[in-house]
Protein: Acyl-coenzyme A thioesterase THEM4
Organism: Nocardioides faecalis
Amino acid sequence: MAWPYVADDTSDPLLAADAEVWQPFTDAVRELVDACVQSDVDADDVRAAQADVEAALARLGKARLSTTLGQSGTVGSRRRAWGNPVIGVRNPIAPPLHVDSDPAGRAWSDFHLGPAYEGPPGLVHGGVVSLIIDQVLGHAVGAGRQPAMTGTLTIRYERGTPLGDLRVEAWVERREGVKIHAGAHVLGPDGPTAVAEAVFIVPRRFRDQLSDGIGAADQGSTQG
Ligand SMILES: CCCCCCCC/C=C\CCCCCCCC(=O)SCCNC(=O)CCNC(=O)[C@H](O)C(C)(C)COP(=O)(O)OP(=O)(O)OC[C@H]1O[C@@H](n2cnc3c(N)ncnc32)[C@H](O)[C@@H]1OP(=O)(O)O
């Protein structure tokens, strides 16, 4: 089927050069977020840092994209995921995760969550756990190159997920027509902390284009 995004004709070297500029900047902003929740300096330093940040904002605000990275056809599909809140090269709220996947419909990532993601004391916010599970499930489903969206996501929080080093794994369990059933879990130092079941749906608008059935290797991926 035809994938609905405009092909990105930016050359690989140009794309890499752009990523080389934005990635270190984004990493610095992520450290700024961490400092925002963890720094213990006095009020004068906070006010001085605020002025520094406002100066940076004035500089960055000189030009602005006219659409989001995800929507932009001119920016192109290869930069589409740069704004993603879990994996985005240009999104400092992304931990970020590097997600691996295989065509059999498995996806996994080892990642780290610091204090900016805290919910209960010392533990990851449940919504953040859900965010990460949803994303990595998307990669597992997308590894089969299917245009599918999360229809239902059920999470059982077995125990608190400690801040720190974690792993997430997701897998496609079975396909029933337009429905793709998948599972996932987050692993902490003492085993699974959250276990998920999900149903992904090939949206109606893509079904007419599915001439060769669900799961064929030449279909588009939901992944950025
Ligand atoms: C293909 C598009 C790709 C988009 C572009 C992606 C770019 C990606 C970029 C970067 C990487 C992203 C990485 C992934 C991120 C994680 C994934 C997300 O977070 S996705 C966002 C959250 N999800 C939504 O916003 C869905 C909102 N809901 C809908 O759009 C619709 O309700 C939808 C598509 C889920 C279903 O709508 P219908 O009209 O296509 O479905 P009907 O024809 O009524 O039903 C078909 C079958 O599915 C079942 N069904 C329908 N809705 C269901 C649901 N919500 N849960 C379970 N089953 C459902 C029905 O019972 C029916 O089953 P029976 O054939 O009768 O057996």
Notes: The chain has two domains: 1-96, 97-224.
